[in-house]
Specification:
With 245 residues, the protein is an alpha/beta fold. It has helices at residues 10-23, 41-51, 66-76, 93-97, 121-138, 168-178, 203-222, 235-244, and strands spanning 2-3, 30-35, 55-60, 81-83, 108-113, 150-152, 183-188. The protein has one domain (2-244): Spore Coat Polysaccharide Biosynthesis Protein SpsA, Chain A. Helix 2 links the parallel strand 2 and strand 3. The protein starts with a strand and ends with a helix.
Length: 245
């Protein structure tokens, strides 16, 4: 749960995830990554960890980006399946967690937003343009790339990545799908933010996303062509073993 200056939202976001755990009988863990917040986010997170044994807190002294926060949270987590639920409360965790059982059949579960009207027209147009560019550039047909994607953690081991900011999720999908891992897309609904504004569409974030896009494009089409072997613990590898028998 990456959190940068989310003091007014973090408690609600944690409560929302807990509701998902209870609703679907999930023995889960929440790793809050306080990404160098200048407000009381860090202290609130520590208070939550003191109250709930399944909450762990990591602190960045300075903001490292949502991608860096995701990776730190992944490697400090104890489970076999990971997903990123941001601390801003925009994502309804049960909307994602309801599909956890499908991870018995795929290694990546990709939610796409079906209640797009909760976002402004400009945000929807930007998202549509972004999706079109990524799909065209990398030969994909995904409906959405920046949601609360679930990954089997073993498929992330040994992955080389560049993005520390908002492009990290897109980069992960590009690389893991091109590696050949099985995935499924599922619909989910977004909440309205209770306070604050999204940091994903600032000019600085868009400049970083553009730079990351160009770097990944160069890596994919002009870099080393060596392909990562499938993780032997992945569903995809198990399916291939079944087919080859």
């Amino acid at each position: 749960m990456p959190s940068l200056n989310e003091a007014s939202n973090i408690s609600g976001a944690v409560s929302n995830v807990m509701n998902g755990f209870r609703q679907f009988s999930i023995n889960g863990q929440i790793v809050i990554v306080n990404d160098g917040s200048s407000d009381s986010t860090g202290q609130i997170a520590e208070d939550l960890a003191a109250k709930y044994p399944f909450v762990k807190v990591l602190h960045h002294q300075t903001p490292q980006g949502i991608g860096a926060s995701f990776w730190d949270g992944v490697w400090q987590s104890d489970g076999e399946t990971v997903t990123m639920i941001p601390g801003d409360g925009e994502n309804d965790a049960p909307e994602t967690l309801r599909y956890l059982g499908m991870m018995d059949h795929v290694d990546i579960l990709i939610p796409f937003v079906y209640n797009k009207n909760v976002r402004s027209l400009s945000r929807r147009l930007l998202s549509s343009a972004y999706r079109g560019i990524i799909n065209m550039a990398f030969g994909m047909t995904l409906n959405y790339m920046n949601g609360t994607v679930m990954y089997r953690k073993c498929i992330l081991e040994g992955l080389t990545f560049r993005s520390k900011g908002f492009f990290y999720q897109t980069e992960l999908l590009i690389r893991t799908i091109r590696d050949g891992y099985l995935f499924a897309e599922v619909p989910y609904a977004l909440n309205m933010r209770s306070s604050g504004q999204s940091k994903a569409t600032t000019f600085r974030s868009l400049v970083k996303v553009t730079s990351n896009f160009l770097s990944i494009f160069r890596d994919i089409y002009f870099g080393e062509k060596k392909k990562r072997p499938l993780s032997p613990d992945s569903v995809t590898a198990a399916r291939w073993r079944e087919i080859s028998q």
